[in-house]
Structure formats: structure tokens, C-alpha cells
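Re: folding output
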Amino acid sequence: MHALIGHFYYWLYQLDVHYFLEVRMHTWLNGLLAMFAVVALLVRVPYSVVAALLALAFLLICSLGSRFARRRYYIHFVPQKMEPPEDPPPPLWPEDKLLHHATGHFHVEDKEGDWTHLIAYYRTFETREHAVMARLTPSFFLRIGMLDPLSLGMWYIFITPEALLAVTPGRSYFGPMVEPALRLRWQRKDEKGRPLEDIAFLHFQSEADLVRVMADLLLDMGGPARRPWRPPRLTTNL
């Protein structure tokens, strides 16, 4: 069931972010389904009414499903209990970066956007601010849909310890991808500068990567940040 939901969300996301002739593919699908339903009702053939109702039902499912999935950034996340390791890994130093995938609300300069499962690097600066540096690359859907070229490039999420509210381990489902993941509950500001509670997802290739990033996030979650955070100096006895 989880995999089925993940595949459904995946298709909804692709339809929502890809364009054909500068129109979202989801809009094309809704228009074609509505047109098919009208034609089926006008043409008097066996089962035409049933076909029209099925088309309208599919249109409704896709529209409501897209609205529901969009609130979760099209990720089906299943929380899992995880016992803390007896020997937790050290937090990331400022020069460290870890390759993963990221989902959430991103910013870059004067633009912002919601993106799912972007290739990214996770870093933590000396100030203990956590950074997700992601890249949106060109892609095609069903050989005709393409991403908005103006959206391609680097996108960022910055989370301070004070803004991080909760970290939940689990597994994420997105199309064929089932991965260890962290769901971050954090507070950001909307376009009017008002505080807004949001979620983000970090997807990993291994449980070890998940544990390492989770230990780094939990180190000073909620603040105050441990400043500055630098590797200990090596001392030698003369």
C-alpha cells in the first residue's frame, strides 16, 4: 500500500511540475478528461454514461489527490522508531558535506519554490546553521513535458537550531524510490515575513548517513546553537 501511494504521488508531482506548450500537464489532463466526459455524454453509445462518470471520477481523484499530496511535498513518509546508537557518530564539521536528496520549500535570491527529491548536499556551518544545497536539473515527462527553464539551477534551505522543532526518522516513498529519510518540522517565514511552520524531508542512501545527519540535527535542536563549532585542535607534547 505504501509503495502504491508513493507511485501515485510521483505521477501527480510530475504532472504538476512539467509543462507542455507552457501549460502544466496536470491542466492538460484535467481538460482532456472533462472533454472526454462531455463527448461521452453527447454520443449515444453503450456504456457512454459509465465512461463519462469514470472520467469525471478520475479527474476528481487526481485533483483532490494533488491538493492533498502537495501539502506533503508529494512524499509518502512512514515514521519508524529508532533506538539511539550506543556510540553516536560525531556531528558534521563545517568542512563536511553529505550527498543525499531533499524535499521541501526552497529559496534562491528572490525566488522560492516547492521541489521534491532534488539531488543535494547537507552541511552545517560554524554557526550551527544547517544548509541543504540542492540542484534542479532538466527533466522530461512522457517525452513531451519539461520543467520551466527559469527554475533550473541551485536551490537552498537554511535551518537554524532555533527554527528546528522536530526530527523524525522513517522511510520515504516516492515513485520507485523507497529510502531511509528524516522528516524535519521547522519554522520559516512566509512571503510577508510572518512565521510559518513547515516540513522538509531528507532522503539518504543508507541508514548510516541518516544516523549521522540526525545526530547532527539533534545536537542543539531548538537552540541555542553551539557556537562556534570547530574540530578540536590537535596538541602535541614536546
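--- second protein (sequence, then structure) ---
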Amino acid sequence: MSVRAALSIDPLLDAANDSWPDWTVGEPRLAPFMSVDEVVAWRRDANWQDDREVLLALGRLTLLEGSRLEATAVLVALCLPACEAAVALRARHSGDWGHVAEVAAGYLWSAVAEYPWEDPLRGWIPQGVARRVGRALDREFGWGESGERVWRDRMLLQPGQLDALVSVEMPDLDVDPVSKSDVCVWALTEGGISREDLDLLIALAVTASEDGAPSRSSAGVTSRSACLQLVGPGQSADQLQYRARRALKVLREAARTHAA
């Protein structure tokens, strides 16, 4: 079971789409859209700052009684890719993926509903939500230090150092997925990487680093062993490995151009 399936969110999204002009009327940032699918499509090529403003507009609507349910459902759907990456990192501690997904679904809804929309944190909002979900899972299942270390131990990479992601000489690679590490913002705004693929690279970097894959395998963070640990329902290791290698190629070329 995936986190999305555990949420049973599709009927809520359908209802939000049906009444979109009514509940979004107070937020001009949402006027160009008529459904959550249009927001998803727009975000693929959107400027990072503009994307943040759209998410904040939705967040403000979660604070109003007349739009709370619809706005929360839409935000949960938009934060799902980042959340599923955080869940994949932790689900390997458990033999029951479905149970972890069910627990994560509840925490994801709570994380969006309780996010400080009136005084938002800096950085990429979906990853901030994913961090909250990940930490909640660590507490729920007693993974403690093992899970928390994924987000706490950091290596700050500058844009010109992104080649390290594909180097086998980087055994301790870990990337902070929040704005405190400039690499995430740079990758989204200039590196040509989608949010979903950035989530995957972060998850693979952590997984490969913990398992020592970068020092053992020429595949580095895209090693098959790392991909196998992150495979979820409806996915295959081949698909993850292809996506990761394609994203790394884009990052490497963009980083060289940027550094030049």
C-alpha cells in the first residue's frame, strides 16, 4: 500500500476540483488554476519562489473554515512525493510497508494541517512537511537515533560541488533537503531537476552513504542495492535507477555550466 492509497484522498480532491472557484476566491495566486492537476502541471516548470507563493496561498486557506478541508487535501497531494521519499527511507526498518504507509498518511495530514502557515518556515515547504512526517515515524516506531540521523548529519554542498554526487570518492555523502543547504534550491531553480527526482536523489544519497555503496560500487548513489531499498509498491529498481541516473546527468552538466 502506498501513502496515497492509505490516505484515500481521491474523493476529497474530486470535491475540491468541483468547487475550486468557490473556495479559492480569496487567493489571487490560485486564480489561474481550476484543479489540483493544473497546479501539479504548472509546478513542473514553475519558478521556485512562485511555487512557494502558491503553496502558501493554499496554506492560508487551510486556516479558514470554508476552505479548510479542500485546501488541506490539495496540499497533502502536492506534498506526497516528498513524503513518500521520507517514508521509503524508513520503511526498510520494517517488514510491513503497508503499516508504515498507513501511519505516515495520518502524520502527513496532520503535518499539513498544523504547519505554521501564518508564520511559515523558510525553504521548500514539501520537504519541511516531509521532515515532520519522518520524525513522527521515528518516534512512532522507536527508530530514534537511526532515523533522526538522516536529517541531522549534514554536508553542505555548493553548486560547483554537485559532481560529488556521481563520484565514488564521496563515502559520507548526505544532503540536507531543507533550504539550509543551498544545493536544493539551486537544483530546483537552475539545475533542471524536478521535485520528485530531487527527492529520489536525496533518498538514494542517504541510503548509499549509510550502506557504504559509494566506496564499494562504481554506480555510487545510483547503485542497484540502494535502489532496491527504496522500491515501493508499483515501482521497480530499474525505474528508480534510470530516473536517478538521468537526474544526475542533468545536475552534473548544469553544475559544470554554472561553475564555468
